[in-house]
Structure formats: structure tokens, C-alpha cells
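Q: Could you fold this chain for me?
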Amino acid sequence: MDLTGLKQHCFETSTKVLVALALLIGAGSWETLVGEEHLTTFPAVAEDAQSASKEADPVIQKLIGRWQTIRPPATEVSNVIFAFTPQGRLLVLIAGASGEMAVTSMGYQVNSKPQPMHLDLILSNRRQDQIKTILDFTEEGLLRLQLSDINPATPRPSAFSDPPLRKISNSPTIQPDLKEIAQKVKGKRKEVEGRLYVSSLIQAELAYYLENSQYASAINQLGSEFQQETENYRYEIVSGEKNQWVGVRGIAKRLGLRSFVGAVFTATGKEGPFTLMATVCQTKEPTRLPPRLPDLITNESGAQPRIRCSQDTQPIPY
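A: Sure. Below is the predicted structure, expressed as C-alpha cells.
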């Protein structure tokens, strides 16, 4: 996925690349992109295709769900997931190679009449804040989606150059699957539980914010299947001031186990839009003490904020 066409909005550090990928361009602000009260829900079928909605519906039904990049789109990025909802909402979740994660939300509309089909990405309630691109499905069921060299000022592309995406779920939610997590933990080292559980709680906080425009302050708000305590770990949520951040800790209960900690920040920079940024860290040595939360590092130069693990902890990939 070539990002050269987005240079005016992209940044050179890994965190900045995450944000540029997440939002595709640096237009709008987080308040206009996320939350039902901020972003109007646009129909998934474009207005000029409403009369042919019966033909468009199978396309939307095929599109709904989560799609994943077959290979990393950049060295700084390990994984990108696109989640299309039936309500015309697109969630983009990006996992960075350095352990950071970013997520954003935007509207989308599909017109299935042209070939290739037209896809409009809606960045705010202003109609001029739209990116016009194309999509199609391969015979193997992969999704072709052109994202390189596009922004609201460029015309709609006519051909694909980006690698296709594969469907990983028919569900559009980014809420983690706890049954899948339980299978991954089964038979593994005890520390695997703490790492996967804290990572899942962080991802659940991202999903919760997208739906509620605020972070969950208690574990049971994130799902009844989440446990607050197991034989190996005790889990807790630390709420930040003014809903600007939330922390999650997995504190070891047994000797010889490392503890885990993660945080989600609502962050922005002078040169970039609002986004949700998250990371998970592990203690460098085994400990049963609560690890210190990561910090959000900002400066006055206009650079995009970044998350830094505390001195006694180190980042781990998702």
C-alpha cells in the first residue's frame, strides 16, 4: 500500500504513520469522526443507487464484516483491519510493529452500478470531506480496495494497485472474542494469559469508546465474560481525568510472573487529527506490584503524540 500520495498528511515516525493510515488523510477532527452524536450515519448504499438497492444489497451484505491486510502495508505497521457495518460505518484498526494501536471511524457509501464499484469514504458531516475510491471482489472472495494516492482533492481512481484484503469475520465489531482468547491461553505459559487478557481489555476499551464516546470505568462494562481475577492475575481499570485516557493493569498474583499494563489515549497534535492511540507494556522483571501506566508524550513542535512505556516496563506487540 503506497502512501506517497498522502505525504502532506503523513508523518515519518511510526506513530504518525499509524495515524495517517488510520484516517487516510488529516482532514476533520475526532469529534466529527466518532460517536453517534457526532457523525451522521449515512446509508451504505449511495443515493444515486437507491433505485437499484435490491441489486446493491448483496454487495453490502458481502462487504459487512472485518477484512484484514494479507501483508503489512508498511514496515511500521504489522496489521490493519477494516470493519464495515450495515449502518454505513467503517472502523479502521491499525496495529503498529512497535506495539502501538490506533483506531478511527468514518462513514462509507457504495454504488455497485459502475465497474469497478464506487466507494465513498465520509470523513465528517460535511459532504466535501469525502474520499472517492473503488472496490471490487475477486473470484477467490478477496476484497480489492484502492487506498493509495487518494484524498478529497483527487479524482476517483480507475484501477487497483493495492494488495487485496481477506475476510476474517462476518461480524463488524472490533470487540475481542473471549472464546478465541481462551483457546489461545489454554495450555500456554501463565504469562500468556496476562498478556492476552490485558491486550483484549485494551481492545475492548477502544470498541467501547467508539460506541459510547467514553471509556468504560469497570471491567463488567466491557463484557460479562471478562473476569476481574484468575488464579494467576488480578485485573483492574484506572480511569483518567475528563475521559482523556483509560488504563488497564494485569497484576501478577504468583511469584515469577511479570505484570502487564496498557492504556488508551484520546490524542491529537497540531498537524494531525484526533485519534485513539493505545499500547500494552510488560514489566521487565517478575513482580506482584502494580506496574506504572504508560505516558502520552507531547511537545510544542506540532509533532504527533506518542505513547511511551514506563522505565520498568517495555512494549509488546499485539
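A (continued): The chain has a mean pLDDT of 78.
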